[in-house]
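Quick one: Major facilitator superfamily (MFS) profile domain-containing protein from Aplosporella prunicola CBS 121167, structure tokens please.
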Amino acid sequence: DDESLIVDWESSTDPLNPRNWSTAKRLGAILQVTAIAVVVCSAGAIDAAVMPQAAEDLGVSEVVETLATGVFLVGFGTGGLIAAPFSELFGRNAVYLASLPVFSLWTMGAALAPNIGAQLVFRFLAAFSATAPLTCVGGTISDLYDSLDKTWVFPLFAIPGFGAPALGLVIGSYIGPNTSWRWTEWSMLIATGIVMALVFMCMPETFGPLLLQWK
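--- reply ---
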């Protein structure tokens, strides 16, 4: 007869179980995924603050330039449909670490865009790839906290994440009059690089089945 080997947590207090990690370690993971959300959500709105400058530089009307924000939202919506299952197959960190560099590349493309067509394509692709880490956040929180604790932990992510578009507008309003509109994209690229380095160095894998597989 074939023998089956069942791998599970040693007990309800197994220190390898993410829900049994120290408070500091779990909150550190939450703060890192919150930083991801703040950066990518700020990027979605930051262009709206420099619309007149971008429209003039690219030789289009401000109405056409609003598409730079519109296609970002479309990219958010469509990317989520495809990216959602990946973290259940490959783990949370695989999605974070794969999507952030891709998001950075498309953001760089938007900063260097020579015309409106290129800008819109790169903005869409940036949003499409930025959706991937956002779809994992709920899973990461569930990995770390039970149903009761999630009620107070989730706002720690949601309030900064949902407030990030307003932050993007503030940053863009400051950058626009003082430099080129392209620096809104460069600033998001720099911020993404900082967050990406933090995640690469400090973010622990939280997906239970993958941790058990490693075990």
